Structure prediction request, 63 residues.
Amino acid sequence: MTSSFWKVILVVVGFSGFLMGYAVPPLLEVGMIGGGGEGRDVGIKSDVDEEMEEYYRDLLKDN
Prediction:
């Protein structure tokens, strides 16, 4: 019985680690995790120019 308990624990920990591997990098990229202090610009720097930003704002207004 003890052997099957450890097998279940191993499967649960492995699956949880797998899911955390997919969850953590996107959170790091958007600045939700990483400890950005005050006065620090946290997040992804966008290469979108003003014209493209206005285009996307117009798309939002249409909806």
About this structure: The CA atoms of residues 29 and 44 lie 6 Å apart. Residues 1-39 form one domain. The two ends are 59 Å apart (CA to CA). The mean pLDDT is 75.
